[in-house]
Amino acid sequence: MQNLIKPRRNFLAVSSTSVLSAAAVALLAGRAAPAHAQTASMGDVNILNAALGLEHEAICAYELGAKSGLLQKPVLDVAVLFQSHHKGHRDALIAAINSLGGKPVEMKSLDDYAKALNAGSLKNQTDVLMLAARLELGATNAYLGVIPAFKDAKLGQVAARLAADETMHWTALSTTLSHALPSNALSFGA
Q1: Hey, which residues does 15 pair with through a beta bridge?
Q2: What class is the 41-176 domain?
Q3: Which residues pair with 18 in a beta bridge?
Q4: Phi and psi angles of residue 166, each rounded to the nearest 5 degrees, phi first
Q5: DSSP labels, 135-175
Q6: What is the tens place of the pLDDT at every residue in 140-189?
């Protein structure tokens, strides 16, 4: 399971030359980017595009689950709600990338995501929920992983808000699956 989580956890990994810009994070928070930050590096755009690619994947994973016919009505409603949250994340990321002069990464075809996610192996509602929970946990850890890179506490707050959405999704999915909640404190982001 750790191997499945690692790519999502590391998508926002930063080096000293590649950090999420103040402009990008301001836009993710729904604020206008400061004028001095309009010259963000391509590294920032690349990080945002990696995040956007993962949001595309989440949107399509929920689409695949919804179209599978495997989800019962109450679970289907929650899946559609969670997909709408990921669409909101996507829209914020696209706005940030555009404002920085970048080109947002395009969503692949639903068939491409189906192959990458091995959707053909989904045989029942539990399989769909386990896939979604795995993706949500990976997203939680990815967003939490970027927080230490921020020098401004407000920037860390934006990443924490995104991680909170992902954690809420994971918790709801895990509860639906009757999985025990983590018994240890500090279970996420490690």
Answers
A1: 18
A2: mainly alpha
A3: 15
A4: -65, -40
A5: HHHHHHHHHHHHGGG-SSHHHHHHHHHHHHHHHHHHHHHHH
A6: 888 788 666 543 454 456 667 888 999 999 999 999 999 998 989 988 88
